């Protein structure tokens, strides 16, 4: 797989994970503030951590040394 195709695949994966985590965090915040579900606050924080983790993973994967050099 070429470097450009690999980078594109990683970017798409990061956007998908971040998007799902963002939607889960929004849903959790709605459950917490609108319906008073205490556990939803922990779920929202976990979703945000997962989203930021996906972005950190993408940045870290860009810094790894090239395989052929």
Task: Walk me through what this model shows.
The protein is an all-alpha fold. The protein contains 2 helices and no strands. The protein has helices spanning 3-35, 39-63. Helix 1 runs antiparallel to helix 2. The longest helix is centred in the first third of the chain and has 33 residues, at 3-35. The two termini are 16 Å apart.
Quick summary:
With 69 residues, the protein is mainly alpha-helical. It has helices spanning 3-35, 39-63. The protein is elongated, with a radius of gyration of 16 Å.
Radius of gyration: 16 Å
Mean pLDDT over the full residue set: 92
**How many beta-strand elements?**
0
- Regarding quaternary structure, what we see is single chain
Residue share in β-strands: under 5%
Secondary structural class: mainly alpha
Termini separation comes to 16 Å
Attribute tags:
single chain; 69 residues; mainly alpha; 2 helices
Indicate the topology.
Blueprint: H1 3-35, H2 39-63
Helix pairs in contact: 1-2
């Amino acid at each position: 797989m070429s470097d450009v195709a690999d980078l594109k695949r990683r970017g798409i994966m990061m956007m998908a994970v971040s998007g799902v985590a963002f939607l889960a965090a929004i849903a959790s915040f709605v459950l917490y503030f609108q319906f008073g579900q205490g556990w939803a606050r922990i779920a929202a924080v976990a979703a945000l951590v997962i989203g930021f983790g996906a972005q950190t993973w993408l940045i870290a994967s860009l810094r790894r040394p090239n395989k052929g050099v």
